[in-house]
């Protein structure tokens, strides 16, 4: 890995990172700040939940437990904000990571330097993964602070399930980052790849939602990494399922490794 390229990539993506992180962290804080109001109005909202089709609520990872349990309340919203928006950020970040050298016609200058293609790829990928990790750490810190500040009296929460659901969010965003890298390495034309990267994430989200709403297509949902995220924080013994971690690890390996191989062979001046 090349330290100069790593630092340059961090600097080039700093504005994007701050914008997305500020948005997701801000939304997380607002959601938790509203927790006393939502949990305090649980009896009034129960009618809405009981009259709403259960399949519809499942599509958005919501049920009656979200009205009474702080962690369930947070987990239902983290699927929408942290996981979905974080996935979009991660995929769009890495999609532009390698392709920028082709789109901005800087690849020729980069590759005449005494740095191997493997080092260029590793440096750029490491910078992007570091930013994704930074986003998740800031969201986790915000969530922990929000629980400490806004959990209503009489309600309890445990840091273990919060850490577990946050780890799933990290694994998901790393998986989307891997997909973005693969898209970036395979692209041939010098055009923006943000749209295709975002489209892939939204496609996975829709597949997961449809599989939850329609039991007939429930098994199809496992195609989507959203399905691998376990938000059942109120379940007894909830924690990190290592087979789910293995799924995400496989996704990362099966996207990053081909991306690295494609980058080594790619004519970035095409």
What is the gist of this entry?
The chain has 270 residues and is mostly helical. It contains 11 helices and no strands.
What does this structure look like?
This protein is an all-alpha fold and 270 residues long. The protein has one domain. The protein is 73% helix and 0% strand. The chain is built from eleven helices and no strands. The longest helix is centred in the first third of the chain and has 34 residues, at 70-103. It starts with a helix and ends in a 5-residue tail after the last helix. The mean pLDDT is 81.
Q: Any key phrases for this structure?
A:
73% helix, single chain, 270 residues, globular, mainly alpha
What is the average of the pLDDT values? 81
Order of helices and strands: HHHHHHHHHHH
Structure annotation, total helices: 11
**Straight-line N-to-C gap:** 25 Å
Spell out the blueprint of helices and strands:
Layout: H1 3-12, H2 14-33, H3 35-40, H4 42-51, H5 54-59, H6 70-103, H7 107-111, H8 117-150, H9 159-186, H10 194-213, H11 242-265
Helix pairs in contact: 1-8, 2-6, 2-8, 6-8, 6-9, 6-10, 8-9, 9-11
């Amino acid at each position: 890995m090349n330290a100069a390229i790593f630092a340059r990539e961090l600097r080039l993506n700093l504005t994007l990172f701050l914008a997305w992180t500020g948005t997701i962290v801000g939304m997380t804080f607002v959601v938790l700040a509203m927790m006393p109001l939502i949990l305090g109005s649980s009896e009034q909202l129960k009618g809405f939940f009981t009259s709403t089709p259960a399949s519809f609520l499942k599509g958005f990872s919501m049920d009656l437990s979200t009205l009474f349990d702080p962690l369930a309340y947070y987990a239902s919203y983290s699927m929408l904000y942290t996981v979905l928006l974080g996935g979009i950020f991660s995929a769009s970040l890495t999609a532009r990571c390698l392709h920028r050298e082709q789109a901005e016609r800087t690849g020729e200058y980069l590759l005449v330097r005494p740095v191997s293609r493997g080092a260029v790829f590793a440096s750029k990928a490491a910078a992007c993964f570091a930013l994704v990790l930074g986003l998740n750490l800031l969201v986790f810190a915000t969530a922990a602070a929000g629980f400490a500040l806004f959990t209503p009296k009489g309600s309890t929460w445990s840091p273990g399930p919060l850490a577990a659901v946050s780890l799933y969010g990290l694994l998901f965003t790393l998986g989307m980052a891997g997909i973005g890298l693969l898209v970036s390495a395979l692209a041939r034309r010098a055009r923006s790849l943000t749209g295709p990267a975002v489209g892939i994430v939204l496609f996975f989200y829709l597949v997961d939602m449809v599989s939850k709403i329609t039991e007939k297509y429930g098994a199809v949902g496992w195609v989507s990494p959203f399905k691998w995220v376990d938000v059942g924080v109120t379940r007894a013994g909830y924690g990190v399922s290592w087979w789910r971690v293995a799924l995400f690890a496989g996704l990362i390996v099966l996207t990053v490794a081909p991306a690295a191989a494609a980058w080594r062979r790619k004519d970035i001046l095409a």
